[in-house]
């Protein structure tokens, strides 16, 4: 049985059903706490970057995610160096 939502030829547009998963048409405005929580989720890879934020919050959001990702990278590098030093000290003993 062919899927009715798929185009039959390349020039025909895909039909979308109104499933209710559509984003709001006006930009979202998040509180500082909501923004902080969402940026933490994105930095951990548990959520996607929201596309419906207003311009100012979108810039702030991306900046905060960069800060968190940089901190995670630094923490990873520090742990790796500590692990390497610990392994090297065991080889010398």
Could you characterize what this model shows?
By secondary structure, the protein is an all-alpha fold. The protein contains two helices and no strands. The chain has helices spanning 32-44, 55-92. Helix 1 packs across helix 2 (55-92). The longest helix has 38 residues, at 55-92. The radius of gyration is 23 Å and the shape is rod-shaped.
Write the layout of secondary structure elements.
Elements: H1 32-44, H2 55-92
Describe the global form: rod-shaped
What would you call the structural class?
mainly alpha
The whole-number mean of residue pLDDT values reads: 80
CA(first)-CA(last) distance: 70 Å
- Beta content: under 5%
Helix/strand order, N-terminal first: HH
Question: How would you describe this structure in keywords?
Answer:
93 residues; mainly alpha; 55% helix; rod-shaped
Describe the structure concisely:
The protein has helices at 32-44, 55-92. The protein is mostly helical and 93 residues long.
């Amino acid at each position: 049985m062919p899927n009715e939502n798929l185009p039959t030829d390349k020039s025909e547009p895909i039909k979308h059903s109104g499933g209710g998963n559509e984003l709001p048409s006006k930009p979202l405005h998040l509180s500082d706490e909501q923004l902080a929580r969402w940026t933490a989720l994105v930095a951990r890879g548990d959520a996607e970057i929201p596309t419906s934020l207003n311009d100012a919050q979108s810039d702030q959001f991306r900046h905060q995610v960069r800060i968190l990702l940089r901190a995670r990278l630094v923490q990873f590098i520090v742990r790796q160096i500590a692990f390497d030093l610990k392994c090297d000290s065991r080889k010398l003993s």
